[in-house]
Design a protein that fits this description.
heterodimer; A: mainly alpha; two-stranded antiparallel sheet; 14 helices; 2 strands; about 0% strand; globular; B: alpha/beta; Rossmann fold; six-stranded mixed beta sheet; four-stranded antiparallel beta sheet
Protein backbone atom coordinates (compact mmCIF):
# COMPACT_ATOMS: atom_id res chain seq x y z
CA UNK A 1 0.00 0.00 0.00
CA UNK A 2 1.47 3.34 -0.99
CA UNK A 3 1.60 6.11 1.56
CA UNK A 4 -0.53 8.43 -0.57
CA UNK A 5 -3.55 6.19 -0.99
CA UNK A 6 -5.33 7.00 2.26
CA UNK A 7 -5.24 10.65 1.24
CA UNK A 8 -6.55 10.24 -2.32
CA UNK A 9 -10.21 10.73 -1.43
CA UNK A 10 -9.32 13.78 0.65
CA UNK A 11 -7.47 15.34 -2.27
CA UNK A 12 -10.43 14.68 -4.57
CA UNK A 13 -12.87 16.38 -2.21
CA UNK A 14 -10.53 19.32 -1.70
CA UNK A 15 -10.05 19.74 -5.43
CA UNK A 16 -13.81 19.86 -5.86
CA UNK A 17 -14.05 22.41 -3.07
CA UNK A 18 -11.33 24.55 -4.61
CA UNK A 19 -12.96 24.55 -8.06
CA UNK A 20 -16.44 25.45 -6.82
CA UNK A 21 -15.71 29.13 -6.00
CA UNK A 22 -14.12 29.53 -9.44
CA UNK A 23 -17.20 28.47 -11.37
CA UNK A 24 -19.86 30.37 -9.46
CA UNK A 25 -20.23 34.05 -8.73
CA UNK A 26 -23.38 33.73 -6.67
CA UNK A 27 -22.77 35.53 -3.41
CA UNK A 28 -25.41 33.48 -1.64
CA UNK A 29 -23.72 30.25 -2.67
CA UNK A 30 -20.25 31.48 -1.76
CA UNK A 31 -21.40 32.86 1.56
CA UNK A 32 -23.16 29.58 2.31
CA UNK A 33 -19.99 27.72 1.46
CA UNK A 34 -17.82 29.81 3.78
CA UNK A 35 -20.29 29.47 6.67
CA UNK A 36 -20.57 25.72 6.08
CA UNK A 37 -16.80 25.30 6.04
CA UNK A 38 -16.46 27.28 9.30
CA UNK A 39 -18.95 24.92 10.97
CA UNK A 40 -17.13 21.95 9.44
CA UNK A 41 -13.77 23.19 10.75
CA UNK A 42 -15.18 23.64 14.26
CA UNK A 43 -16.73 20.19 13.87
CA UNK A 44 -13.36 18.67 12.93
CA UNK A 45 -12.01 19.94 16.21
CA UNK A 46 -14.91 18.41 18.11
CA UNK A 47 -14.66 15.14 16.14
CA UNK A 48 -11.06 14.50 17.20
CA UNK A 49 -11.92 14.63 20.88
CA UNK A 50 -15.51 13.40 20.76
CA UNK A 51 -15.59 11.11 17.74
CA UNK A 52 -12.20 9.46 18.10
CA UNK A 53 -11.54 9.99 21.80
CA UNK A 54 -15.10 9.49 23.07
CA UNK A 55 -14.91 12.59 25.28
CA UNK A 56 -18.13 14.47 24.52
CA UNK A 57 -17.62 18.18 25.01
CA UNK A 58 -20.59 20.46 25.29
CA UNK A 59 -18.46 23.58 25.37
CA UNK A 60 -16.39 23.84 22.22
CA UNK A 61 -17.60 27.43 22.02
CA UNK A 62 -14.91 28.12 24.64
CA UNK A 63 -12.29 27.38 21.97
CA UNK A 64 -14.17 28.99 19.07
CA UNK A 65 -14.62 32.18 21.05
CA UNK A 66 -11.04 32.15 22.27
CA UNK A 67 -9.82 31.90 18.70
CA UNK A 68 -12.12 34.66 17.47
CA UNK A 69 -11.47 37.10 20.30
CA UNK A 70 -7.72 36.45 20.37
CA UNK A 71 -7.44 37.03 16.64
CA UNK A 72 -9.47 40.26 16.80
CA UNK A 73 -7.99 41.74 19.96
CA UNK A 74 -4.36 40.96 19.10
CA UNK A 75 -4.87 43.10 16.00
CA UNK A 76 -6.94 45.82 17.62
CA UNK A 77 -5.17 46.21 20.97
CA UNK A 78 -1.66 45.18 20.07
CA UNK A 79 -1.46 46.00 16.38
CA UNK A 80 -0.34 42.53 15.39
CA UNK A 81 -0.39 41.47 11.77
CA UNK A 82 -3.57 39.50 11.02
CA UNK A 83 -1.75 36.34 9.94
CA UNK A 84 0.40 36.40 13.08
CA UNK A 85 -2.71 37.06 15.18
CA UNK A 86 -4.41 34.12 13.47
CA UNK A 87 -1.53 31.79 14.36
CA UNK A 88 -1.40 33.10 17.92
CA UNK A 89 -5.17 32.62 18.26
CA UNK A 90 -4.84 28.96 17.24
CA UNK A 91 -2.00 28.47 19.73
CA UNK A 92 -3.97 30.18 22.47
CA UNK A 93 -6.97 27.98 21.67
CA UNK A 94 -4.77 24.90 22.07
CA UNK A 95 -3.49 26.24 25.39
CA UNK A 96 -7.02 26.90 26.68
CA UNK A 97 -7.99 23.39 25.56
CA UNK A 98 -4.99 21.97 27.37
CA UNK A 99 -5.89 23.92 30.50
CA UNK A 100 -9.52 22.81 30.56
CA UNK A 101 -8.42 19.28 29.71
CA UNK A 102 -5.83 19.25 32.48
CA UNK A 103 -8.36 20.33 35.10
CA UNK A 104 -11.17 18.00 34.03
CA UNK A 105 -9.16 14.89 33.09
CA UNK A 106 -6.93 15.17 36.15
CA UNK A 107 -10.07 15.00 38.26
CA UNK A 108 -11.13 11.92 36.27
CA UNK A 109 -14.24 13.49 34.73
CA UNK A 110 -15.91 11.41 32.04
CA UNK A 111 -19.16 11.14 30.16
CA UNK A 112 -21.86 13.58 31.17
CA UNK A 113 -19.66 15.06 33.91
CA UNK A 114 -17.07 16.05 31.35
CA UNK A 115 -19.81 17.43 29.08
CA UNK A 116 -21.23 19.55 31.89
CA UNK A 117 -17.85 20.91 32.96
CA UNK A 118 -16.99 21.98 29.41
CA UNK A 119 -20.41 23.62 29.12
CA UNK A 120 -19.72 25.46 32.37
CA UNK A 121 -16.33 26.67 31.11
CA UNK A 122 -17.85 28.04 27.90
CA UNK A 123 -20.61 29.79 29.86
CA UNK A 124 -18.12 31.31 32.30
CA UNK A 125 -16.07 32.60 29.37
CA UNK A 126 -19.20 34.08 27.81
CA UNK A 127 -20.25 35.82 31.01
CA UNK A 128 -16.77 37.15 31.77
CA UNK A 129 -16.32 38.47 28.22
CA UNK A 130 -19.81 39.96 28.33
CA UNK A 131 -19.00 41.86 31.52
CA UNK A 132 -15.44 42.92 30.81
CA UNK A 133 -14.54 46.25 29.20
CA UNK A 134 -11.31 44.71 27.92
CA UNK A 135 -13.43 42.57 25.57
CA UNK A 136 -15.76 45.51 24.90
CA UNK A 137 -18.63 43.79 26.72
CA UNK A 138 -21.83 42.78 25.02
CA UNK A 139 -21.18 45.01 22.00
CA UNK A 140 -18.27 42.83 20.97
CA UNK A 141 -15.27 43.67 18.83
CA UNK A 142 -15.41 45.10 15.33
CA UNK A 143 -12.39 44.61 13.08
CA UNK A 144 -11.42 47.50 10.88
CA UNK A 145 -12.22 46.84 7.23
CA UNK A 146 -8.94 46.74 5.35
CA UNK A 147 -9.06 44.28 2.49
CA UNK A 148 -5.51 43.25 1.75
CA UNK A 149 -4.28 39.65 1.53
CA UNK A 150 -1.45 40.66 3.88
CA UNK A 151 -4.15 41.63 6.33
CA UNK A 152 -6.04 38.34 5.93
CA UNK A 153 -9.02 40.17 4.47
CA UNK A 154 -10.18 39.72 0.92
CA UNK A 155 -12.33 41.75 -1.38
CA UNK A 156 -13.89 38.70 -2.98
CA UNK A 157 -15.87 35.99 -1.26
CA UNK A 158 -14.23 33.43 -3.54
CA UNK A 159 -10.86 34.11 -1.90
CA UNK A 160 -12.36 33.50 1.54
CA UNK A 161 -13.78 30.27 0.15
CA UNK A 162 -10.39 29.13 -1.07
CA UNK A 163 -8.81 29.88 2.29
CA UNK A 164 -11.61 28.00 4.06
CA UNK A 165 -11.03 25.03 1.76
CA UNK A 166 -7.32 25.11 2.71
CA UNK A 167 -8.16 25.19 6.43
CA UNK A 168 -10.67 22.35 6.18
CA UNK A 169 -8.10 20.52 4.05
CA UNK A 170 -5.59 20.81 6.88
CA UNK A 171 -8.21 19.46 9.28
CA UNK A 172 -8.99 16.55 6.94
CA UNK A 173 -5.35 15.61 6.52
CA UNK A 174 -4.70 15.99 10.25
CA UNK A 175 -7.66 13.73 11.01
CA UNK A 176 -6.46 11.07 8.58
CA UNK A 177 -2.91 11.32 9.93
CA UNK A 178 -4.20 10.87 13.48
CA UNK A 179 -6.20 7.83 12.33
CA UNK A 180 -3.04 6.21 11.01
CA UNK A 181 -0.78 7.01 13.94
CA UNK A 182 -0.05 5.43 17.29
CA UNK A 183 -1.67 8.43 18.96
CA UNK A 184 -4.85 7.72 16.99
CA UNK A 185 -4.86 4.04 17.96
CA UNK A 186 -4.44 5.01 21.60
CA UNK A 187 -7.15 7.66 21.34
CA UNK A 188 -9.67 5.14 19.99
CA UNK A 189 -8.57 2.66 22.67
CA UNK A 190 -9.33 5.27 25.32
CA UNK A 191 -12.79 5.75 23.79
CA UNK A 192 -13.51 2.02 23.72
CA UNK A 193 -12.19 1.02 27.14
CA UNK A 194 -9.95 3.12 29.33
CA UNK A 195 -8.98 0.30 31.70
CA UNK A 196 -7.86 -1.96 28.90
CA UNK A 197 -5.90 0.89 27.38
CA UNK A 198 -4.05 1.48 30.64
CA UNK A 199 -3.27 -2.22 30.96
CA UNK A 200 -1.65 -2.05 27.52
CA UNK A 201 0.61 0.80 28.54
CA UNK A 202 -1.43 3.77 27.33
CA UNK A 203 -1.00 6.92 29.39
CA UNK A 204 -4.67 7.80 29.05
CA UNK A 205 -4.33 11.21 30.70
CA UNK A 206 -1.63 12.29 28.27
CA UNK A 207 -3.56 10.98 25.28
CA UNK A 208 -6.72 12.86 26.27
CA UNK A 209 -4.74 16.02 26.96
CA UNK A 210 -3.11 15.87 23.55
CA UNK A 211 -6.49 15.25 21.92
CA UNK A 212 -8.25 18.17 23.57
CA UNK A 213 -5.38 20.53 22.72
CA UNK A 214 -5.42 19.53 19.07
CA UNK A 215 -9.21 19.63 19.07
CA UNK A 216 -9.27 23.11 20.60
CA UNK A 217 -6.67 24.36 18.10
CA UNK A 218 -8.84 23.37 15.13
CA UNK A 219 -11.98 24.89 16.63
CA UNK A 220 -10.04 28.06 17.54
CA UNK A 221 -8.93 28.28 13.90
CA UNK A 222 -12.59 28.22 12.91
CA UNK A 223 -13.26 31.08 15.34
CA UNK A 224 -10.32 33.14 14.07
CA UNK A 225 -11.39 32.61 10.49
CA UNK A 226 -14.94 33.59 11.42
CA UNK A 227 -13.82 36.96 12.74
CA UNK A 228 -11.66 37.61 9.67
CA UNK A 229 -14.68 36.93 7.48
CA UNK A 230 -17.46 38.73 9.36
CA UNK A 231 -15.14 41.31 11.00
CA UNK A 232 -17.32 41.11 14.08
CA UNK A 233 -17.38 38.99 17.19
CA UNK A 234 -19.50 39.30 20.32
CA UNK A 235 -19.99 37.08 23.38
CA UNK A 236 -23.02 35.28 21.93
CA UNK A 237 -21.44 34.66 18.51
CA UNK A 238 -18.19 33.50 20.07
CA UNK A 239 -19.08 31.71 23.27
CA UNK A 240 -22.82 31.07 22.87
CA UNK A 241 -24.20 27.58 23.42
CA UNK A 242 -25.39 27.39 19.83
CA UNK A 243 -21.74 27.43 18.71
CA UNK A 244 -21.01 24.40 20.90
CA UNK A 245 -24.09 22.68 19.56
CA UNK A 246 -23.18 23.22 15.92
CA UNK A 247 -19.64 21.98 16.55
CA UNK A 248 -20.98 18.70 17.92
CA UNK A 249 -23.96 18.35 15.57
CA UNK A 250 -21.86 18.42 12.40
CA UNK A 251 -19.79 15.31 13.25
CA UNK A 252 -22.67 13.46 14.92
CA UNK A 253 -25.01 13.98 11.97
CA UNK A 254 -22.29 13.37 9.39
CA UNK A 255 -20.60 10.40 11.03
CA UNK A 256 -18.89 10.29 14.38
CA UNK A 257 -15.21 9.44 14.35
CA UNK A 258 -14.89 9.46 10.56
CA UNK A 259 -12.71 11.60 8.33
CA UNK A 260 -15.54 13.05 6.22
CA UNK A 261 -18.23 13.08 8.91
CA UNK A 262 -17.95 16.72 10.04
CA UNK A 263 -17.88 18.02 6.44
CA UNK A 264 -20.91 15.98 5.41
CA UNK A 265 -22.70 16.94 8.61
CA UNK A 266 -21.94 20.64 8.16
CA UNK A 267 -23.31 20.57 4.62
CA UNK A 268 -26.42 18.70 5.76
CA UNK A 269 -26.97 21.17 8.59
CA UNK A 270 -26.56 24.13 6.30
CA UNK A 271 -29.04 22.78 3.76
CA UNK A 272 -31.43 21.93 6.57
CA UNK A 273 -31.11 25.46 7.95
CA UNK A 274 -31.81 26.99 4.55
CA UNK A 275 -34.77 24.69 4.13
CA UNK A 276 -36.13 25.76 7.51
CA UNK A 277 -35.72 29.40 6.60
CA UNK A 278 -37.59 28.88 3.35
CA UNK A 279 -40.33 26.83 4.93
CA UNK A 280 -40.97 28.88 8.01
CA UNK A 281 -39.85 32.24 6.70
CA UNK A 282 -37.29 33.54 9.15
CA UNK A 283 -39.12 32.31 12.22
CA UNK A 284 -36.41 32.69 14.85
CA UNK A 285 -35.13 29.37 16.18
CA UNK A 286 -36.74 27.35 13.37
CA UNK A 287 -33.35 26.06 12.22
CA UNK A 288 -32.38 25.01 15.74
CA UNK A 289 -35.66 23.13 16.14
CA UNK A 290 -35.01 21.29 12.88
CA UNK A 291 -31.42 20.55 13.95
CA UNK A 292 -32.79 19.02 17.13
CA UNK A 293 -35.22 16.90 15.18
CA UNK A 294 -32.49 15.67 12.85
CA UNK A 295 -30.30 14.82 15.84
CA UNK A 296 -33.10 12.70 17.28
CA UNK A 297 -33.54 10.94 13.94
CA UNK A 298 -29.83 10.23 13.60
CA UNK A 299 -29.55 8.87 17.12
CA UNK A 300 -32.68 6.74 16.71
CA UNK A 301 -32.11 5.38 13.23
CA UNK A 302 -28.56 6.00 12.03
CA UNK A 303 -26.05 5.98 14.84
CA UNK A 304 -23.20 6.23 12.36
CA UNK A 305 -24.64 9.40 10.81
CA UNK A 306 -25.33 10.23 7.18
CA UNK A 307 -22.14 8.48 6.03
CA UNK A 308 -23.29 5.16 7.49
CA UNK A 309 -26.57 5.49 5.61
CA UNK A 310 -24.69 6.04 2.37
CA UNK A 311 -22.58 2.99 3.08
CA UNK A 312 -25.63 0.86 3.88
CA UNK A 313 -27.19 1.90 0.56
CA UNK A 314 -24.06 1.08 -1.37
CA UNK A 315 -24.06 -2.42 0.03
CA UNK A 316 -27.60 -3.01 -1.15
CA UNK A 317 -26.74 -2.38 -4.78
CA UNK A 318 -27.44 -5.75 -6.48
CA UNK A 319 -24.60 -7.65 -8.07
CA UNK A 320 -22.04 -6.09 -5.81
CA UNK A 321 -21.26 -8.43 -2.94
CA UNK A 322 -19.94 -7.13 0.32
CA UNK A 323 -16.21 -7.47 0.07
CA UNK A 324 -14.15 -8.62 2.99
CA UNK A 325 -11.49 -6.13 3.88
CA UNK A 326 -8.00 -7.36 2.96
CA UNK B 1 18.03 -17.26 42.68
CA UNK B 2 16.60 -14.22 40.95
CA UNK B 3 13.15 -13.00 41.78
CA UNK B 4 11.46 -11.02 39.05
CA UNK B 5 8.63 -9.96 41.31
CA UNK B 6 8.58 -9.44 45.04
CA UNK B 7 5.43 -8.54 46.89
CA UNK B 8 6.45 -7.36 50.35
CA UNK B 9 3.90 -7.29 53.14
CA UNK B 10 1.18 -5.85 50.94
CA UNK B 11 -2.17 -4.92 52.45
CA UNK B 12 -5.17 -3.42 50.68
CA UNK B 13 -8.17 -2.12 52.55
CA UNK B 14 -11.41 -0.97 50.96
CA UNK B 15 -13.07 0.98 53.75
CA UNK B 16 -13.55 -1.54 56.54
CA UNK B 17 -12.80 -4.55 54.35
CA UNK B 18 -9.26 -5.92 54.18
CA UNK B 19 -9.14 -7.54 50.77
CA UNK B 20 -5.44 -8.39 50.88
CA UNK B 21 -3.79 -8.82 54.24
CA UNK B 22 0.00 -8.60 54.55
CA UNK B 23 0.77 -10.86 51.65
CA UNK B 24 4.40 -11.50 50.80
CA UNK B 25 5.34 -13.40 47.71
CA UNK B 26 8.42 -13.76 45.55
CA UNK B 27 8.25 -15.10 42.01
CA UNK B 28 11.17 -16.57 40.11
CA UNK B 29 11.88 -15.49 36.57
CA UNK B 30 10.61 -17.91 33.96
CA UNK B 31 8.18 -19.76 36.21
CA UNK B 32 4.44 -20.39 36.11
CA UNK B 33 2.79 -19.71 39.43
CA UNK B 34 -0.83 -20.49 40.15
CA UNK B 35 -2.80 -18.24 42.47
CA UNK B 36 -5.85 -19.99 43.85
CA UNK B 37 -8.38 -19.56 46.60
CA UNK B 38 -12.12 -19.46 47.17
CA UNK B 39 -14.24 -16.62 45.81
CA UNK B 40 -13.50 -13.33 47.51
CA UNK B 41 -10.08 -14.47 48.69
CA UNK B 42 -8.41 -11.36 47.24
CA UNK B 43 -6.81 -12.90 44.15
CA UNK B 44 -7.98 -10.28 41.68
CA UNK B 45 -7.16 -7.50 44.13
CA UNK B 46 -3.63 -8.86 44.48
CA UNK B 47 -3.39 -8.82 40.67
CA UNK B 48 -4.54 -5.23 40.62
CA UNK B 49 -1.88 -4.34 43.17
CA UNK B 50 0.83 -5.99 41.10
CA UNK B 51 -0.36 -4.47 37.81
CA UNK B 52 -0.87 -1.00 39.27
CA UNK B 53 -4.64 -0.65 39.01
CA UNK B 54 -4.79 -0.32 42.80
CA UNK B 55 -2.29 1.13 45.24
CA UNK B 56 -1.58 -0.89 48.39
CA UNK B 57 -2.56 0.58 51.76
CA UNK B 58 0.69 -0.87 53.07
CA UNK B 59 3.71 -2.70 51.74
CA UNK B 60 5.76 -2.63 48.57
CA UNK B 61 5.82 -4.18 45.15
CA UNK B 62 9.27 -4.76 43.65
CA UNK B 63 9.81 -5.60 39.99
CA UNK B 64 13.32 -6.60 38.93
CA UNK B 65 14.61 -5.26 42.25
CA UNK B 66 13.03 -1.86 41.60
CA UNK B 67 10.30 -0.43 43.82
CA UNK B 68 7.28 0.11 41.57
CA UNK B 69 4.68 0.65 44.32
CA UNK B 70 4.00 4.23 43.21
CA UNK B 71 3.92 3.60 39.46
CA UNK B 72 0.57 3.73 37.60
CA UNK B 73 -0.59 0.78 35.49
CA UNK B 74 0.55 2.16 32.15
CA UNK B 75 4.10 2.77 33.40
CA UNK B 76 4.22 -0.79 34.69
CA UNK B 77 3.14 -2.05 31.28
CA UNK B 78 6.09 -0.16 29.80
CA UNK B 79 8.39 -1.95 32.26
CA UNK B 80 6.97 -5.27 31.07
CA UNK B 81 4.04 -6.19 33.31
CA UNK B 82 0.94 -7.19 31.36
CA UNK B 83 -2.41 -8.41 32.63
CA UNK B 84 -5.64 -9.82 31.32
CA UNK B 85 -8.99 -9.08 32.89
CA UNK B 86 -11.24 -11.68 34.45
CA UNK B 87 -14.18 -10.02 32.72
CA UNK B 88 -12.79 -9.55 29.24
CA UNK B 89 -12.66 -5.95 28.13
CA UNK B 90 -12.09 -5.82 24.37
CA UNK B 91 -12.22 -2.61 22.36
CA UNK B 92 -15.63 -3.66 21.09
CA UNK B 93 -15.86 -1.62 17.89
CA UNK B 94 -12.34 -2.40 16.73
CA UNK B 95 -11.35 -5.46 14.75
CA UNK B 96 -9.30 -8.27 16.28
CA UNK B 97 -6.17 -7.02 14.50
CA UNK B 98 -6.76 -3.43 15.65
CA UNK B 99 -7.33 -4.59 19.22
CA UNK B 100 -4.02 -6.41 19.32
CA UNK B 101 -2.27 -3.55 17.51
CA UNK B 102 -3.03 -1.22 20.43
CA UNK B 103 -0.89 -3.52 22.57
CA UNK B 104 1.75 -3.84 19.87
CA UNK B 105 2.06 -0.05 19.64
CA UNK B 106 3.78 -0.09 23.02
CA UNK B 107 6.93 -1.38 21.33
CA UNK B 108 6.25 -0.23 17.76
CA UNK B 109 5.64 3.39 16.94
CA UNK B 110 4.70 2.86 13.30
CA UNK B 111 1.17 1.78 12.51
CA UNK B 112 2.23 -0.70 9.84
CA UNK B 113 4.72 -2.43 12.13
CA UNK B 114 2.21 -2.60 14.97
CA UNK B 115 -0.38 -4.19 12.66
CA UNK B 116 2.19 -6.65 11.32
CA UNK B 117 3.21 -7.65 14.82
CA UNK B 118 -0.45 -7.93 15.81
CA UNK B 119 -1.15 -10.29 12.90
CA UNK B 120 1.75 -12.53 13.86
CA UNK B 121 0.59 -12.82 17.45
CA UNK B 122 -2.99 -13.42 16.34
CA UNK B 123 -1.87 -16.31 14.14
CA UNK B 124 0.13 -17.79 16.99
CA UNK B 125 -2.96 -17.78 19.17
CA UNK B 126 -5.24 -19.17 16.50
CA UNK B 127 -7.02 -15.89 15.79
CA UNK B 128 -5.73 -15.74 12.21
CA UNK B 129 -9.03 -16.48 10.44
CA UNK B 130 -10.97 -13.80 12.33
CA UNK B 131 -8.45 -10.95 12.17
CA UNK B 132 -10.86 -8.49 10.58
CA UNK B 133 -13.94 -9.32 12.65
CA UNK B 134 -15.11 -6.73 15.15
CA UNK B 135 -14.28 -7.79 18.70
CA UNK B 136 -17.92 -7.39 19.72
CA UNK B 137 -18.91 -10.30 17.48
CA UNK B 138 -16.52 -12.86 18.99
CA UNK B 139 -17.41 -15.92 21.05
CA UNK B 140 -16.34 -16.08 24.69
CA UNK B 141 -13.46 -18.40 23.84
CA UNK B 142 -12.21 -16.07 21.10
CA UNK B 143 -12.52 -13.07 23.41
CA UNK B 144 -10.37 -14.82 25.99
CA UNK B 145 -7.76 -15.48 23.33
CA UNK B 146 -7.96 -11.89 22.18
CA UNK B 147 -7.41 -10.70 25.74
CA UNK B 148 -4.34 -12.92 25.89
CA UNK B 149 -3.10 -11.80 22.47
CA UNK B 150 -3.40 -8.13 23.37
CA UNK B 151 -1.41 -8.62 26.57
CA UNK B 152 1.25 -10.60 24.70
CA UNK B 153 1.52 -7.88 22.06
CA UNK B 154 3.00 -5.55 24.68
CA UNK B 155 5.96 -7.98 24.79
CA UNK B 156 5.76 -8.48 28.54
CA UNK B 157 8.31 -9.97 30.93
CA UNK B 158 5.67 -10.83 33.49
CA UNK B 159 2.18 -11.85 32.47
CA UNK B 160 -0.75 -11.91 34.90
CA UNK B 161 -3.61 -14.08 33.69
CA UNK B 162 -6.90 -13.59 35.52
CA UNK B 163 -9.09 -16.65 34.89
CA UNK B 164 -8.42 -17.07 31.20
CA UNK B 165 -10.08 -20.50 31.34
CA UNK B 166 -13.31 -19.44 33.04
CA UNK B 167 -16.34 -19.84 30.82
CA UNK B 168 -14.60 -22.15 28.36
CA UNK B 169 -15.84 -25.65 27.58
CA UNK B 170 -13.48 -28.62 28.12
CA UNK B 171 -12.28 -28.78 24.52
CA UNK B 172 -11.61 -25.04 24.40
CA UNK B 173 -9.66 -25.45 27.63
CA UNK B 174 -7.59 -28.26 26.19
CA UNK B 175 -6.75 -25.97 23.28
CA UNK B 176 -5.54 -23.08 25.38
CA UNK B 177 -3.38 -24.95 27.92
CA UNK B 178 -0.56 -25.56 25.42
CA UNK B 179 -0.79 -21.89 24.43
CA UNK B 180 -0.05 -20.84 28.00
CA UNK B 181 2.78 -23.33 28.24
CA UNK B 182 4.26 -21.95 25.03
CA UNK B 183 4.18 -18.47 26.53
CA UNK B 184 6.26 -19.67 29.48
CA UNK B 185 8.60 -21.50 27.11
CA UNK B 186 9.63 -18.27 25.40
CA UNK B 187 10.77 -16.98 28.78
CA UNK B 188 7.79 -14.98 30.00
CA UNK B 189 7.05 -15.36 33.70
CA UNK B 190 3.40 -16.21 34.26
CA UNK B 191 1.18 -15.83 37.30
CA UNK B 192 -2.32 -17.16 36.81
CA UNK B 193 -5.45 -16.90 38.87
CA UNK B 194 -7.47 -19.99 38.08
CA UNK B 195 -10.36 -22.00 39.43
CA UNK B 196 -9.94 -24.91 37.03
CA UNK B 197 -7.74 -27.10 39.23
CA UNK B 198 -6.89 -29.57 36.51
CA UNK B 199 -5.22 -26.82 34.52
CA UNK B 200 -3.46 -25.47 37.57
CA UNK B 201 -2.05 -28.91 38.44
CA UNK B 202 -1.08 -29.37 34.82
CA UNK B 203 0.64 -26.05 34.22
CA UNK B 204 1.96 -24.62 37.45
CA UNK B 205 5.23 -25.43 39.14
CA UNK B 206 4.11 -23.68 42.23
CA UNK B 207 0.78 -22.79 43.74
CA UNK B 208 0.00 -20.00 46.16
CA UNK B 209 -3.28 -20.10 48.08
CA UNK B 210 -5.11 -17.05 49.36
CA UNK B 211 -8.01 -17.15 51.77
CA UNK B 212 -9.75 -14.08 53.18
CA UNK B 213 -6.88 -11.94 52.01
CA UNK B 214 -4.19 -14.00 53.69
CA UNK B 215 -1.63 -16.27 52.13
CA UNK B 216 -2.32 -19.67 53.66
CA UNK B 217 -0.20 -22.05 51.58
CA UNK B 218 2.65 -21.90 49.12
CA UNK B 219 4.33 -24.85 47.46
CA UNK B 220 4.22 -27.53 44.78
CA UNK B 221 0.68 -28.22 43.48
CA UNK B 222 0.55 -31.71 45.04
CA UNK B 223 1.63 -30.51 48.46
CA UNK B 224 -0.76 -27.60 48.45
CA UNK B 225 -3.82 -29.64 47.58
CA UNK B 226 -3.13 -31.91 50.56
CA UNK B 227 -2.63 -28.98 52.91
CA UNK B 228 -5.21 -29.10 55.68
CA UNK B 229 -5.75 -25.34 55.72
CA UNK B 230 -6.36 -25.27 51.99
CA UNK B 231 -8.97 -28.01 52.13
CA UNK B 232 -10.70 -26.23 54.98
CA UNK B 233 -10.65 -22.92 53.10
CA UNK B 234 -12.60 -24.54 50.30
CA UNK B 235 -14.77 -27.02 52.15
CA UNK B 236 -15.21 -25.55 55.62
CA UNK B 237 -13.79 -26.11 59.06
CA UNK B 238 -13.12 -29.72 59.97
CA UNK B 239 -13.47 -30.88 56.38
CA UNK B 240 -9.90 -32.13 56.21
CA UNK B 241 -10.41 -34.38 59.22
CA UNK B 242 -13.72 -35.68 57.86
CA UNK B 243 -12.16 -36.43 54.48
CA UNK B 244 -9.32 -38.26 56.21
CA UNK B 245 -11.85 -40.28 58.19
CA UNK B 246 -13.86 -41.11 55.11
CA UNK B 247 -10.81 -42.41 53.30
CA UNK B 248 -9.73 -44.62 56.17
Amino acid sequence: MSAARPYASILAVLALGAVLPLVTSSNILLNGMVVTLIVALAGYGWNLLGGYGGQFSFGHAAFFGTGAYACALLQQHYGLNAWVAFGAAVALGAAVGGGIGYLSFRSGLRGSYFALVTLAFAEVFRIVVNASPFFNGAAGVLLKLDTRPGNLQFASRASYCELAVVLVGIALVATRAVERSRFGAYLVAVRENENSARALGVDTFKVKLKAISLSAALTAAAGAFYVQYFLLINPELGFGTSVSIQALLAPIIGGLGTVFGPLVGAIALHELGEFAQGLLGGLPGADMALFGLSLILVIAFARGGVLSLVQALRWRVPGKPIEARP
Amino acid sequence: MTFILEVQGVTKRFGGLTAVDEVSLAVEAGSITGLIGPNGAGKTTLFSLISGFERPSQGHVMFRAEDITALPADRRAVLGIARTFQIVQPFAKLSVAENIAVGAHLRHRSRDEAIRSAREIAKRLGLGPILEKPAASLTVAARKRLELARALATEPVLLLLDEVLAGLNPSEMRDIVPVIRAIRDVGITVIMVEHVMQAVMNLCERVVVLNQGRLIADGKPREVTRDQRVIEAYLGKGAAARLEAAHV
